[in-house]
Amino acid sequence: MEREDRDNRFFRSMLKTFAPMHRWLYRVSDGRVGGNWANDRMPVLLLTTTGRRTGKERTWPVGYMRDEDAYVVVASNGGLATHPAWYHNLTAEPRVVIEVGGERLAVQAATTDEAERARLWARIIKRYPNFTKYQEGVTRELPVVVLRLAS
């Protein structure tokens, strides 16, 4: 088994184990517990997408950055070679829900174009340098997604 394959399986099993607990703690504490990634103090929101194959709602904790009235997330998948499932889901159905603290918001997701990605990427890596390592470790470009309030 290749190292990347092992890493991917380990990462996915960790997500399946800890994500439900993270969601629960986040929700019962209105984001006071689980509201930041400890290593870089990046704020966390809960992103709920609709499964593109199952039609079921899926919710994952995702780090974000604010850009004026928008929330910006990176589909880094912890530096793995593949996009996270939530990214595939929101590209199939961009109307998603986020929870920030105790607030639920209906938002519209859009992957940035090249110019917007470059502008946001510079801000992201300045504040959260781990994304530089994630990008350098994979051949895919890490998608930057903007979440804006749905109208």
Describe, in plain words, how this protein is organized in 3D:
- The chain has 4 helices and 8 strands.
- With 151 residues, the protein is of the alpha+beta class.
- It has one domain: Pnp Oxidase, Chain A (Roll).
- Strands 1, 2, 3, 4, 5, 6, 7 and 8 form an 8-stranded antiparallel beta sheet that branches.
- A hairpin with a 2-residue loop joins strand 4 (65-67) and strand 5 (70-74).
- The protein is globular and about 35 Å long.
Which labels suit this protein?
Pnp Oxidase, Chain A; 31% strand; alpha+beta; eight-stranded antiparallel β-sheet; 4 helices
Outline type: globular
Give the total of beta strands.
8
The H-level CATH homologous superfamily, spelled out, is: Electron Transport, Fmn-binding Protein, Chain A
CATH arch. level architecture: Roll
| Termini Cα gap | 47 Å
CATH class: Mainly Beta
Count up the helices: 4
Question: Which bin fits the share of residues in helices?
Answer: 25-40%
Q: Based on helices, strands and strand pairing, what is the structural class?
A: alpha+beta
CATH fold annotation = Pnp Oxidase, Chain A
Look at the structure and give the mean pLDDT: 88
- As for the number of domains, it is 1
Q: Which residue ranges are poorly predicted, with pLDDT under 50 across at least 5 consecutive positions?
A: none
Could you describe the largest sheet, including whether it forms a barrel? 8 strands, antiparallel
SSE arrangement, N to C: HEEEEEHEEHHE
The value of Rg in angstroms is 15 Å
Q: What portion of the residues fall into strands of 2 or more residues?
A: 25-35%
